[in-house]
Design a protein that fits this description.
Elements: H1 20-47, H2 55-60, H3 79-92, H4 94-114, H5 117-129, E1 134-137, E2 153-156, E3 160-171, E4 178-184, E5 190-196, E6 202-203, E7 218-229, E8 233-234, H6 241-275, E9 277-278, E10 281-282, H7 287-315, H8 321-345, H9 357-367, H10 374-386
Parallel strand pairs: 1-4
Antiparallel strand pairs: 2-3, 3-7, 4-5, 5-8, 6-7, 9-10
Helix pairs in contact: 1-3, 3-4, 3-6, 4-5, 4-6, 6-7, 6-8, 6-9, 7-8, 8-9, 8-10
The protein binds 3-thiaglutaryl-CoA and flavin-adenine dinucleotide (FAD).
Flavin-adenine dinucleotide binds next to β1, β3 and α10.
Amino acid sequence: MKPDLFHAPDYYQIDDLLSDEHKMVRTAARDWVKKEVSPIIEDAAQKAEFPKSIIKGLAEIGAFGPYIPAEYGGAGLDQISYGLIMQEIERGDSGVRSTASVQSSLVMYPIFKYGTEEQRQKYLPKLASGEWMGSFGLTEPDHGSNPGGMTTNYKDMGDHYLLNGAKMWISNSPFCDVAVVWAKNEEGRIHGLIVERGMEGFSTPETHNKWSLRASATGELIFQDVKVPKENLLPNKSGLGAPLGCLDSARYGISWGAIGAAMDCYDTALRYAKERIQFGKPIASFQLQQKKLAEMITEITKAQLMALRLGQLKNEDRATTAQISMAKRNNVEMAINIAREARQMLGGMGITGEYSIMRHMMNLESVITYEGTHDIHLLITGADITGIPAFK
Ligand code: TGC
Ligand code: FAD
């Protein structure tokens, strides 16, 4: 793979709107990605291996629980810093950002928000340091967009719960130490349970042959009469709103992350277009190529402004689910379109691993599907503006 020459575009001087802390956090993440992710990520993706060697570094840049208070091992940062970290990591690779998203927003967040003080003390510091890795089990083989239909269930056996069922498409599952799993009780009410590796009847087979997110490990979570201690139930919220609340946080992070992937594709295509000579001129001098680049930077700038405003609303606890859906949907579509255009601008070179673009493009096919598909987010906006849900 070519050396990482990334230069971040900031067409509207959005940096002026960031605090010194935001810029410091972003610089640390950007430098770390350049040094530790860029040199190894293409190889990891080609081999379809999650590069476990980066876990420690992710913890050090604050990517595990950026907004979780420092007393639990988190970085205690605001939501804009969280977004900037996700942006920089996904600039390197969406799969690496996935690992950080799951750990922070889908594992640490529910334990912090819905857990007991004992659960916070037991799990959060180890998750923040990367000593333990987590996964989040919501999706099932027959219930993806409609998680409320889940059949994974647990029964109260007096001194423990008995958990049965299966989750599919679970990021980090093959190597997770703990899983936050959503299951129905005997009354059909959804609760979160913390399942630990080593519990009898719990297995995590890996899903192979993915053409997307190859540097992220994906798998199943299978529960066959797993005895879960009663103290592992998350007591402070139940119902579908509990897992969906975690998704709000992860989807917000993705709305920033996708900008990172788009910036990398744009920056690569711009540099290539200035250097690549055809018909005696750099291809950047042709109007058709300039149109692509001009549209890319316009869309990136719009997405940056949207993410920043959403971050301000998040900081004030005013961001709605529908606003988050709009940003996730818009920014991921923006990124995938830019990846496709940028790939064409590199001609044949665009399909090789010498450049990051094709990897971003394939990764984004997962990003546009997980955390709510592109269609589902459109329907969330539709329901919000009309007051009429069209899901069913
Ligand atoms: P609906 O009737 O609309 O809602 C059920 C209850 O939930 C409440 N609610 C929310 N609460 C908090 N935050 C949200 N975002 C919420 N959205 C809804 C709602 O108020 C209601 O509460 P209550 O008290 O009245 O019961 O539910 P529905 O069954 O009609 O479904 C709505 C729909 C389709 C929007 C929802 O189910 C959905 O978002 N589906 C998409 C599923 C999804 O996003 N799955 C993601 C799995 S995790 C993942 O992909 C991780 S990838 C990680 C990585 O690698 O980065
Ligand atoms: P389906 O729900 O079957 O959807 C298929 C198609 O039908 C989609 O185009 C969808 O938009 C459309 N559709 C569905 N319902 C409607 C409707 N009402 N109206 C119009 N169109 C509709 N899940 C987790 O729980 N944890 C994870 O860590 C996790 N990681 C993932 C990692 C990867 C790489 C991938 C690919 C997925 C991951 N997921 C995870 C699962 C992901 O959230 C689901 O794939 C996603 O929610 C869609 O569910 P589905 O694949 O079952 O598709």
